[in-house]
Amino acid sequence: MKNKITIFSVILLSTLFFIISCNKEIIPNDNNTNSNIKVVKLITLTSGYKTSITMLEFSDTNAYDSILSDLYQQVETHEDAFIAQYDSLNDSLLNAKEEEIGYNDQQPLIDFENSLGFTNSMRQVYDVDVEDWLNHDTLDSITDPDNTYVFDIEEMAMLNTGGEVKIGTAILKLTNEGFIEFTDGDVNKLARFNSGDMTVLNEPNVITSLTENSRSSNCKWWKGKNIWDKYASKRKVKKHLHFHAYPWKGTSSVRITSYKKRGRRWKRYRMYMGVQNTSEFYDRNDCDNKIFQEASRWRRKKKKTIRKHCTGWGAFPGYRAKNWFSVVGQFEYSGKYNYEVLSW
Questions:
Q1: I want to staple 44 with a disulfide (CB 3.0 to 4.6 A). Which of 54, 228, 305, 327 is the partner?
Q2: Cα–Cα dist 314/321, whole Å
Q3: For the chain, how many helices (H) and strands (E)?
Q4: pLDDT tens digit sequence for 103-148
Q5: Model-level pTM?
Q6: Which of 15-19, 40-44, 244-248 has the lowest mean pLDDT?
Q7: How far apart are CA 154 and CA 113, in angstroms?
Q8: Which has the closest alpha carbon to 175: 195, 200, 156?
Q9: What does the angle CA 199 – CA 204 – CA 206 come to, to the nearest 5 degrees?
Q10: DSSP H/E element including 291
Q11: How confident is the model at residue 51 (pLDDT cuts 50, 70, 90)?
């Protein structure tokens, strides 16, 4: 444990010397002026099993990442405008004002979905489940919807309820345990998997992280962790860290969400918080070699949820997370400071 603590200290101190910021969320070929880079449309695929699946289709991975980045920025701009308008209010009055005027921090995502006629996004199902979960006297970490919906709310606006999306010629399915990519776009294979046929994972043109083939339990494609802190009466925060290896990139996230109890139910509560993300991604050979390293600047705002990402792009099979090393999150809230490490 002493060695682990020393390692953590080195990682945290290293953030003072990084000049690369995860805040930029830059995608490859960002100077590409081809209009197809942001092509997205709604499609419905029908399998030979008479199953219809509606999802969004993006022209390629650049388009997917570009639109995701745009949605992040639109939500941030929307939030900044609200906070600036009521900057003089304290936390309690600011939260009350939000309810009074019917402010919705997800409005840019709703507008995005509406513009495409996308009525079966993961975000929509997630919101219903979260409201039901909050409508209880206690917050049950076991039934927390974030255990199932392990993506940022912006990405959930791009996925259907099954976590599915078409990117180029491939169909990608994202789950809380990893991904399955049907590189030939065979919707019949997707339908078979959705019906419980796991043998499809061994067939040609199927790439997946669900059948973990690393020899080490300390080297994984897809891991996440939630840490709760009841820091005051009727108040909690949930600190979250995760690493996800997609077929074309690896990404880590450090996130904090604030909750306050009112009556016999809970609400997400806007207050001043801060997060910082330091990440190291490793190769697929049991994480012997560190191949990506990045640290974000701090992000501090009055929000209900605040997060920082680090993302590295690379050819499949790409990056892995190393137990106790890959993601370190620093957190500030209600006068407190602490840090957490992604471990399993």
A1: 54
A2: 14
A3: 7, 18
A4: 999 999 999 999 999 999 999 999 999 999 999 999 999 999 999 9
A5: 0.90
A6: 15-19
A7: 11
A8: 156
A9: 70
A10: strand 290-295
A11: confident
